[in-house]
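User: quick one, fold this
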Amino acid sequence: MDILIISGFLGAGKTTFIKALAKHTKKEIAILENEYGDVGIDGDILKKQTSGGEVNIWEMTEGCICCSTKRDFASSVLTIANSIDPECLVIEPTGVGFLSKILANLQQIEYEKIRLLAPITIIDGHSYMRYVQEYSVLYQDQVASASIIFVSKMEQATSDEKGQIMAELKKINPKGRIITEHYSLMNQSEWNRLFEVGYDGILLKPKKETELLDIDTFSLADAIVSSPEQLLLMLEDLIRGKYGNIIRAKGQIEARGQKFRFDVSDGQYIVSGADSELENKAIFIGKNIQRQKLRRNFFEKIKYIPTTNR
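Assistant:
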């Protein structure tokens, strides 16, 4: 799972940027929102407006992920990696979060299956000079810790004005890539590149052909569907290739209080009654498994991470 952080001060336009990002990628992504307060707002907006509601939106409230809830934050990221397992987790920290601390927190759980991408900071061009003076330490941290800086709300600015703010940002982050043109003007390859550059600035190596040929597995615990009919429809779609090239699948699933056992092999499936005392779980084996599509049959109502306390 790759992790892409979209940082920025309050009102900079992080949520709007993430909506555009979701529309310009074919990757399976999940979004982790951090709201500083009791009630999440941006998560509802993203859920409604990104990819027809097909993107998983998780929220954390009551505290900032860079400080007071570090353990809960790290645990939440690991939970998403081990259960949801999207291709990319997009993290939107609260606008008052220190990007350097968030990165340090994530580096503690980074390993071969969790990679940090080049972090992004969104800057409001109109408010930059005021905020950098009023919130100097926080604002400069968000700028200095980013690999890529997008300057928003500068569509009507002159080239001289854009050049001035770029010069100011370069003083804080001389090595960062600063983009003053609006991101809506980016082509598809530029959007793709946001998912291809690592935290160290090095282009990530694509998977080797031998790795792409390896058999993959995907398992689910607490496997529950809404009805027996949904189970049958899912199995029909499965053998027709909707969820990838699945050559074997089996498990026990609950549907409307009843237990069913299913077995898929050689393009055919069998469904029978099952022992009520056995655990609900399922496993899928094959190539190019579409985890996100499969998961929606089971977890379509589970969109948010439980609220955490300080």
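User: anything notable?
Assistant: The longest strand covers residues 245-255.
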